[in-house]
Amino acid sequence: MTKGNLENLLIQCITEHKESVYRLAYSYVKNAEDALDIVQDSIHKAFASSETLKSTTSIKSWFYRIVVNTSLDFLRKQKKIRVFDENALELLSDGRDDVYPNIDLERAMDELPPIYRSVIVLRYFDDLKIEEIADVIKENVSTVKTRLYQALRMLRVKMNDETLEVQ
Fold first, then answer.
1. Contact (Cβ atoms closer than 8 angstroms) between residue 125 and residue 27
2. Is residue 73 domain-shared with residue 10, that is, in the same domain?
């Protein structure tokens, strides 16, 4: 396949899955600007390393893997930066509250370790099949199934705990 054809396929893949890729990046960083930066870096990395793509049939999972790795790299770099506490953020805020349709689920997802959060996001928010998730995160299918089961169990426990606290 020529480089031009490969680039056209990559452009088509990025265009078709731009919302899903953004959602995936956002699920890691929880910040719109950072998620956009990650998507942009991922697109750059994809074009720079397009010759490493072995098969054009796996271009979607290959690009998702780049997004996941770029997100994880970003998070590793952010650990070196001091995070504001909630009191400092309230002083900096403009007084408007964020509106979340299900804040308990949002919090429970935030508390999941990244390996479990990514499986949940890829399966239920990006609607990938188990085999596709395995390809994206470079794990075997049984590992993905186990992580998915464990993540759902952790979410269920966390959601039940929060419900009990409210009552």
1. yes
2. yes
